[in-house]
Amino acid sequence: MSRQLRSVAVLSAIAAAALIPHAVFAAGPYHPAPTEAGVTYHPDHASTRARGEVIAEFNQAAKHPRWSTAMSRGAPWPVSSAETPKTREQVQAELATVMKHPAWNAVSRGASWPADMIESR
């Protein structure tokens, strides 16, 4: 093995060893922090589901005929709704009502909706 090839292999191994802990932190409830403790704990990031359950759900979703099309375009996976779909007229009426709100101009430029306009679901 040449000296140059050995150097590349050693550098690759060092880089991999340095980056692996960061990938592990991203997947769990502990995240690095610039504090004395060095980590922060986020209990909402901890999964209560077993790995096998998640893999089974993924495999079921991947069998869907539109899986590759949706994922290749970066589209979010559609969630089925229990509500009846709205008609075009209902959507247009809802839009016309919202456009009359005084905050519409600010919202259309990227501001968030006022709290009284947001439906809690």
Short description:
By secondary structure, the protein is mainly α. Among the domains are: 1-46, no CATH class; 88-112, no CATH class. It has helices spanning 3-27, 51-62, 67-72, 88-99, 104-108; strands at residues 30-32, 39-41.
Verbal overview:
With 121 residues, the chain is mostly helical. The chain has helices at residues 3-27, 51-62, 67-72, 88-99, 104-108, and strands at residues 30-32, 39-41. The chain is built from 5 helices and 2 strands. It has a two-stranded antiparallel sheet with strand order 1-2. The chain is elongated. The N and C termini lie far apart (63 Å). The model has no long low-confidence stretch (mean pLDDT 77).
Unreliable sequence segments = none
Structural class: mainly alpha
**Number of helical segments with 4 or more residues:** 5
Distance between the termini: 63 Å
The run of helices and strands is HEEHHHH
Kindly estimate the percentage of residues that lie in beta strands according to DSSP: under 5%
What level of helicity do the residues show?
A: 40-55%
Largest beta sheet: what is the strand line-up? 1-2
Largest sheet: 2 strands, antiparallel
Report the principal-axis shape.
elongated
